[in-house]
Specification:
Order of helices and strands: HHHHHHHH
Strand content: under 5%
CATH architecture of the largest domain: Orthogonal Bundle
CATH class of the largest domain: Mainly Alpha
InterPro entries: RNA_pol_sigma-70-like, RNA_pol_sigma-70_dom, RNA_pol_sigma70_bacteroid, RNA_pol_sigma70_r2, RNA_pol_sigma70_r4_t2, RNA_pol_sigma_r2, RNA_pol_sigma_r3/r4-like, WH-like_DNA-bd_sf
Number of helices: 8
Structural class: mainly alpha
Family: Belongs to the sigma-70 factor family. ECF subfamily.
Domain RNA polymerase sigma-70 region: 14-80
CATH superfamily of the largest domain: Winged helix-like DNA-binding domain superfamily/Winged helix DNA-binding domain
Pfam families: Sigma70_r2, Sigma70_r4_2
Domain RNA polymerase sigma factor 70 region 4 type: 109-159
Number of strands: 0
Shape: flat
Length: 184
Amino acid sequence: MFTLLEKKRYFEQLFRESYSRLYYYALSFLNDDERAKDVVSDVFEIVWKGRDRLEFSTSLVPFLYKLVRNACLDELRHEKTAQRFAAYMREEPEAVDESKHLEYELLIDRIHRAVEQLPTQTRNVFKRCFLEGKKYQDAGAEFGITVNTVKAHVMKALRILREQFSGEEFILLFLCFGKSTEKK
């Protein structure tokens, strides 16, 4: 069993020895200096926060590479979705007529009603995480449930909503609610 001081020393050494290699690995995916730095920093933050659950007797380097790769892929997926939505919005005429405006209002109303129809606990957790931008850990503490249970409720809500809305409508759902969910 490692003490906190031993874990801190190991983590500092791991950071010094691995940061630049992980940064270049992330850069190979993202081709963006700042985003690569952010991804690697976020990964080290996640590892440090989860240090009590990690086995420090084995090398964490392969685990770090896997975390960086997955974070980069998530970044790329998010970027692709944003680009598709931007392209969709560019295709729309500059002057949106009244019927299109009404159509969007009705869709937003449908989204709100769909969220309200979610099971009570799922709805409450989803609203805390998506509408209020609370971290999963904070929402879990508020409801007296684990972070994994919070994640399960969010995934359940997203699955239900994905079944009810088309691709473009689902993107609008994230534009309405997802702004605060970027870094949990």
